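Q: Study each token:
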Amino acid sequence: MNVILTGSLGHIGKPLTEELVRKGYTVTVISSKPEKQKDIEALGATAAIGSIEDVQFLTTTFTGADVVYCMIPPNYFHEADQTTYFSRIGTNYAKAIRQAGIKRLIHLSSFGAHLDKGTGMILGAYQVETILNTLSDVAITHMRPTYFYYNLYGFLDRIKTTGMIAANYGGDDTIVLVSPTDIAMAISEEIQTQATHRKIRYVASDHCTGNEIASVLGSAIGKPDLQWHIITDQQMQEGLETAGIPKETAATLVEMYACLRSGALAEDYYLKQPATLGKVKLTDFAKEFADVFNQK
């Protein structure tokens, strides 16, 4: 089977490439960086160097593929209007898939993609799903991962300077966490699964409250009394701006996390949650978190 992967060798792309090559698939990895070619080839895959802004490049690369995996690379701090960015790249993918005659697509979306407003930074996930769903003769799986473990790295500096975690969400609220490795394994499973016309698959690794997260991370870094403090949206906005995040970008983050706090972001997840969770638990991630914390 010939599989095309976007996303280069990122958090999901690298373990996904390794898994598919191990299973004997012919894998082509798209990257915009020529220097990634040797790393891609070292994994046993073929590198396709080009831009996802180039529909002709995408069409040529997609042609002949049995399965295409599409994701929108993060561009949070280079393009202020994320909704326009997501829509543009989603449209590029749709055009290339249609022109290349692709019949099987796996799309990396997000939990919260069932909402058409109020999700801030990830509103684009709803828009891209909508765009791709216009491909009437393509079997599509929308992968909806939850809150990535590595988002917790954003608290490193605050823990170092104040000895606490502070955010406009968390505390006693449950956060559904996910590892990129578990996402990669779920995508690999979907590639091997009989295609259906439309499918939504949520991916999660662990369920923990903010306070439980603080306790586990605190124990791992030698701060067993680490606390998770809830702050207001305005305080969250001010803190992000102080950290150097542009005002407009910070506002979308605050809105997204407020949606998480309200429960709206995860409401559809709980209706369709996976029968089994991924293998990487918070205690596993805490070891990685401690390593990074001790290096700073």
Summary: Residues 82-100 form the longest helix (19 residues). DSSP finds twelve helices and twelve strands in the chain.
